[in-house]
Amino acid sequence: MKNKMRILYIDLQNSGISGDMFLAALLELVPESNKIVNQLEELKNVLPGVSKLEIKLIKTEITGIQVNKLKIEIKETKDHRTATILQKSLTDFLVKSQISDSAKDYANKVLNSLILAESEVHGELTKNIHLHELSSVDTLIDIIGVATALDKFNAFNDNDLRIFCSKIPLGSGTINTKHGILAIPAPATLKILEKSNLVTCGGPIESELTTPTGAALLAHLEPQILQHLPDMKILKTNYSTGQKIFENFPNVLRLFYGEDKKSDFSNLSHSLQKYVEQVAILETDVDDISGEILGNFISTIENEEILDVQIFSSITKKNRPGHIIKVLCYPEYTFNIIEKIITELGTLGVRFNISNRVCINRRIERKSIDINEKTFEINYKVSFIESEKGMEIINIKPEYEDLKKISEETGMTVKKIQLLVNSKIKQIYENF
Fold first, then answer.
1. What is the pLDDT of residue 267?
2. Helix (H, G, I), strand (E, B) or coil at 242
3. N or C: which end of the chain has fewer CB within 10 A?
4. Mean pLDDT, all residues of the chain
5. How far apart are the C-alpha atoms of 397 and 382, rounded to whole Å?
6. What is the reported pLDDT for 351?
7. What is the distance of C-alpha 78 from the center of its chain?
């Protein structure tokens, strides 16, 4: 019997992410959510300066939908704390916690990345940094709460769980901080994003949609980025919101939990897994286009953000000769390319779908090669895979334009030059 692959999809397209928003969504996904909330209130006993801490998971309505929201009441005397104090408070709390070592490690990594980001932004040693916006007890609430909820969900020790996430809206405009007015996204948020594999986008409104804590919590989960839901059987959908209310933006985070058969996914431990990316495949049929128009179309489309273009001969209805136009591009360029296809070819419709592909590493190298006592510079493309075994060369291909130029200067055929160049390049990589 095939195992069921569990799937968690985090949809941030209409929210961005903050720590309390993420926690509010996760709490409804796990049993004993009230117990988790009660445990979080004990933070007042390990963080100096906190006299009152009450946390409630409540329901509120946004655009007619019931969503989760954290209501937190805090009384604290300190307006900022050092990194050392926050780290000690987190350690003291986790020592008494019943969560797994993996969850504790996650919580520590999230806090450390926040502290490091602030340190890099301000150019100070970590131990000397004073955390203003991040120093409140709610930062620890978010980190410990998310780590605990994910642990209850068995997110850290289950090889049959796959976490996906949409692109992350960052917002735009400015934000008031202890250091003055800063551009959005905040510098600390950017530092965290720089070290992650998360995919972001600006806007769509003028406000901070992704906070440093939200970015850190997500970055250390290392989700696979998908702009749309993967194929899955949806078992549960959760909604949450943060503390901000916007007039024309829902600010609602959605969690989709479901399952699919593990066999529908690639082997998670395979070295090619990290090379999976999404591409858009665009197709249209034309039966009244001249060869000159098709040639001009190829020349025009090659200047766009495409990965490849192909034209196939075909027979259409009524036995008319025609052509199938196929263009490959990244999903974000889909509609720009479709518009170009329509305007250039006059077609009435273009089919498209988003598909996964494995695309391995490649890089361009340059080498000086002597041919007939003359030195030529030639570029060549090396494609390779990196795995636990090291670097595996898949293919080495000299650039055709360079081969052609050498052919014109020497009078030798391109084919012969290609053989000579390949033999010389091969010597460089014979140990791989």
1. 55
2. coil
3. N
4. 88
5. 7
6. 95
7. 36
CA distance 213 to 134: 8
Q: Are residues 171 and 144 both part of a single domain?
A: yes
246 and 288 assigned to the same domain? no
286 close to 306: Cβ distance less than 8 angstroms: no
Same domain, 353 and 365: no
Distance CA 422, CA 426 (A): 6
Q: Using only the alpha carbons of the chain, give its radius of gyration.
A: 27
Alpha helices in 100-219 (DSSP H): 101-122, 137-152, 187-194, 212-219
Name, in order, each residue with C-beta under 8 angstroms of 272's C-beta and a sequence gap of 6 or more.
266, 358, 360, 385
Residue carrying the six token digits 């209850």: 152
For tokens 């780290």, the residue is 87
Distance of CA 172 to the CA centre of its chain: 19
Work out whether the CA dihedral 22, 172, 252, 225 comes out positive or negative.
Answer: negative
The better pLDDT of the pair 136, 330 is held by 330
Q: Which two tokens stand for residue 71?
A: 């209501």
Helix, strand or coil, per DSSP, at residue 97? coil
Strands 168-169 and 252-261: unpaired
- 3-state DSSP: the chain helix, strand, coil percent, rounded to 5? 35, 35, 30
